[in-house]
Amino acid sequence: MSFVGRSEAERRVMLKQIGAESVEALWASIPPEFRVQGSLPLDPPLAEYEITRRFAQWAEANADANQYACFLGAGIYDHFIPAAVRSLLSRSEFATAYTPYQPEVSQGTLQTIFEYQSMICELTGMEVANASMYDGATACAEASLLATGATGRRVVLVSQGVHPHFREVIRTYASAGSFDVRDLPLDHGATAAAGLKRMLSPEVAAVLWAQPNFEGIVEDGAALTEAAHAAGAYSIASADPVALALLLPPGRDGADIVVGEGQPLGVPMGYGGPLVGFFSIRKSDVRRLPGRLAGATVDLDGRRGFVLTLQTREQHIRRERATSNICTNQALMALANTIHLALLGAQGMRDVATQSLEKAHYLARRAAQVPGVSLANGDRAFFREFVLRLPGPATGFLRAAEKRRILAGVPLSRFDGARPRDLLVAATEKRTREEMDRYVDALAEWARHPAQAPVQEAACRS
Question: Which UniProt keywords apply (predicted)?
């Protein structure tokens, strides 16, 4: 498709075709006071190399993860991505592929989806995985729908340890009237099994919890699942795929549905997207599975092949019988997950998880030694991120750290105005000892004279 502007001759032909005498005649119905008078206040045209230079100058003004030590987390993580991932994703047969409706011409795409599903099942300890969802948030919401449909109950208990954005999307789904959402409170950063038991009742369809949770705490998945099952409810885990390389997969603890965000597996941070959700279940619920499912079969000659199967989608069957109105998947991002997992392998994933765990604990231990700074959740076990409680507003430290080329974390005041001094900090395998020591030095310097007035952020709030 050409993006070159139209010539005057072409404009005249177009105007003649629609019966207009001039371009101005097209705007005659717009009152003059609402029209722009004269030329637009734009700079004169630039040569290609001048445009490139200008964009490079603008990019240098950004505090990006390539130039700064990045300790951001809260659902989007700065993990290493092998160059082969981008190289393979850029191949035209993947980057421009359309929906694999015709298996005879889509075997490559279908096979990559099948391999992706197999890897997700291995990670989560589940029996069936779909071709992916839009993101972790929609995966959680669709899991809630599946549980309410399977149990015939209307209440979903959602731990406050689930990502706040995920909880917002779940509530948006619930607002249509199909189910109700109730919050499960945290006790020192973790979902309390005792509190869960008090809230369980015959009307509860599912308990949704995160592993690890939003504040990095490792939950007692076995206890939460056992409590849910004792009340006849589903146990839904929103799991981090990197953590699953070390922690016991929720499926092994008996969870009925395991979902999550796949961004840590070969997908760039990208200012929050694009993302990809994974969704895995027990085989008994396969006909309630939302989205696509690729299956292996054989053709008339006995050769192995791949097809889309069990397509319980509203555009394929009667609307009232559909299990979901998500009729697609994030195929390119799921392919990034697949390539990333294949390149690293099981041992490589364990290495990434182990380094992230050890570096996060090193940084947390050193940061907590700074006078006035403590770990908000005490000695709770955590994986890759943790919450620091600072002697002043966290936004003030963020500004100070930025001057030292450090992206110091995510202030929890974005999600809870009652927590202005709490900072969520993540450390992945990419962080070096020098970067972490520099972080602690910056924190110690700021903590000696912390500003007490919070710095107003430009970022949107939840």
Answer: Oxidoreductase
Q: Would you state the structure tokens that stand for residue 6, as one six-digit string? A: 């139209």
Structure confidence at residue 2 (pLDDT): 60
Q: How many C-beta atoms surround the C-beta of residue 172 within 10 A?
A: 13
Q: Are 281 and 257 in contact (CB under 8 A)?
A: yes
Q: With 70 as the cut, is the pLDDT of residue 392 above it?
A: yes
CB-based contacts of 116: which residues, under 8 Å, 6+ apart?
129, 131, 132, 334, 335, 337, 338
- For residue 399, the Cα-to-chain-centroid distance in whole angstroms is 25
Chain centre to alpha carbon of residue 374:
28
**How far, in Å, CA of 410 to CA of 237, rounded?**
23
Which residue ranges make up each domain of the chain?
8-60, 71-79+347-448, 83-340
The residues, any chain, with a CB within 8 Å of residue 68's CB and separated by 6 or more, are 402, 405, 406, 407
Mean pLDDT for 354-365 is 98
Give the angle subtended at the CA of 104 by the CAs of 101 and 108, to the nearest 5°. Answer: 80
Shortest CA distance to 345 belongs to which of 133, 89, 123? 123
CA distances from 387 to 302, 330, 420 (A): 56, 31, 12
pLDDT in tens, 47-99: 999 999 999 999 888 888 989 999 999 999 999 999 999 999 999 888 887 78
- The Cα–Cα gap between 234 and 308 comes to 27
Residue 462 — very low, low, confident or very high, per pLDDT cuts 50/70/90?
very low
pLDDT of residue 91: 92
Tokens of 462: 């939840």
Give just the sign of the alpha carbon dihedral 341, 346, 347, 353: positive
Beta bridge partners of 184: 159
Contact status, residue 217 vs residue 328, Cβ threshold 8 Å: no
Fold of 83-340: Aspartate Aminotransferase; domain 2 (3.40.640)
User: What distance in Å separates the CA atoms of residue 32 and residue 30, rounded to the nearest whole number?
Assistant: 6
Please give the pLDDT value at position 320: 72
Contacts of 216 by beta carbon, 8 Å cutoff, 6+ apart: 73, 360, 382, 383, 384, 385, 386, 387, 424, 426
Q: Which tokens go with 329?
A: 């998947």
53's tokens: 């230079």
Pick the CATH number of 71-79+347-448 from 1.10.260.40, 3.90.1150.10, 3.40.630.30, 3.50.50.60: 3.90.1150.10
- Would you state the pLDDT for residue 456? 65
CA-nearest of 186, 196, 185, 280 to 233 is 196
